[in-house]
Amino acid sequence: MAENQSEHLLYDQLLELSARTTPFHMPGHKRVLSPAPGLPVQIDLTEITGADNLHHAEGILRDAMDRTARLFGADRTFYLVNGSTVGNLAAIRAAVPAGSEAAAAGPCHRSVLNGLALAGAAVHRIRPERVPEWGFSGSVKPEQIAAFLDEYPDAAAVILTSPTYEGVVSDVRQIADLCHRKGAALIVDEAHGAHLGLPGSRFFPEGAIACGADLVVQSAHKMLPSLTQTALLHVMGDRVPAERVERALSVYETSSPSYPLLCSLDGCTGILRNRGEQLFAAWEERLTRFYRRAAGLRALSVYGLPEKGTDLSGLYARDPSKILLRAVCDSSITGQMLLDVFSKEYGIEPEMAQDSYVLFMTGLCDTDEMTDRLMDALSDLDERLLAGERLTDYAGCGGSDVVRRNFDEETIY
Question: In this structure, are 269 and 334 located in the same domain?
């Protein structure tokens, strides 16, 4: 039977269920009184008859997760309503026995280190080389993984972050092969790479699912059209059984999952299934146009432009959706100063700043107008800096409203 092509099938099912039931159950708003305008209280249900149970899904939630698994090419997919954080914690609990050896490769999220600590594992950090002049971490090299596995042949798992916040991708296929030869599981924290490997995403690097990883954690809300806090945990093969992953999720994930967030994940799947090819094609066109124009900047530099002399030798691959910008005309201009200029003068909010650069995240839902506005702002600032203007007004700027964008990449992304 042909799959229902609705982009929001789960939403439709919950709305119908809500309309025909009287709620003598949680939540307390009873689908009558919304605590704020626009909140979807009609579908804010709990595990009543017909609504399934995320922690033992056999009905409409299992069907929704299976739809997502088919789209992403996974053997099994779990919806997450506590972000990629809970996915990392559960993946590690499922794959890393207490007291075993495990490696955290590359810059990693604190949930990776917390998960390994909770597992009582002996943690080994594998740190790649830094990219010259920019300072962020390059790709984890397969030979680094091979050396770790030779030294610790009984290691339970390698946890690899790919892509990183800056879009740096490692050779997941070769690393997966190295791990499996030694009997170790490969967990890929692909929080910033939910768009990789999807239909229509040929402009971007290959995703970890297709490259042989055993468990892949993705933040749908970071790069795809889904609500904040939504994420996915994909299982491939039986090296780490899906049943063990499900038990681990029951330990770390809330026992009261948000049905609106679950609808967001199913709706995201529907959009990608029905319109993904067109959305990815438009995204590729916008980025191609942006990088073509960015090649003309002189006081500012965008990472990844070979014609501008960018050294890409330390990278296996990079996701071009992450736009990295730094000033080359004045070494005193920090990433934080650039963030403040774009925020306060151009009304453009970057994702984060590091010491020397600022990062802009693009996405499927950007518009041509948004991309052109960013490029116009870059061109204007470039001209100002070439004319000798200094950004001294922004020295020392950066209050509590931007602290969240400043990260120590050795501990979190």
Answer: no
408: which residues sit within 8 A by CB, 6+ positions away? none
**Please, what sign has the CA dihedral across residues 358, 359, 365, 366?**
positive
H-helix segments, 152-211: 172-181
The closest of 93, 151, 95, 104 to 127, measured between CA atoms, is 104
Choose one of 273, 291, 307: the last residue of a domain: 273
* CB distance 193 to 164 below 8 Å: no
Question: What is the total residue count of the chain?
Answer: 413
Which range has the worst mean pLDDT, 86-95, 298-307, 368-377? 298-307
- Determine the straight-line distance between the first and last CA of the chain, rounded to whole angstroms: 43
Q: Which residues contact 190 (CB under 8 A, 6 or more apart)?
A: 162, 163, 196, 207, 208, 216, 217, 218
360 shares a domain with 263: no
Same domain, 261 and 291: no
Residue 391 is predicted with a pLDDT of 87
- pTM of this structure: 0.94
What DSSP assignment string belongs to 35-86? SSTT--GGG---S-TTS--GGG--SHHHHHHHHHHHHHT-SEEEEESSHHHH
Is the domain of 215 the same as that of 300? Answer: no
> To the nearest 10°, the Cα dihedral for 39, 41, 45, 49?
-140
Please, which pLDDT band fits residue 354 given cuts at 50, 70 and 90?
A: very high
Contact 108, 159 (CB under 8 A): yes
Strands ordered across the beta sheet of 215-218: 76-80, 231-235, 215-218, 185-189, 157-161, 101-105, 122-126
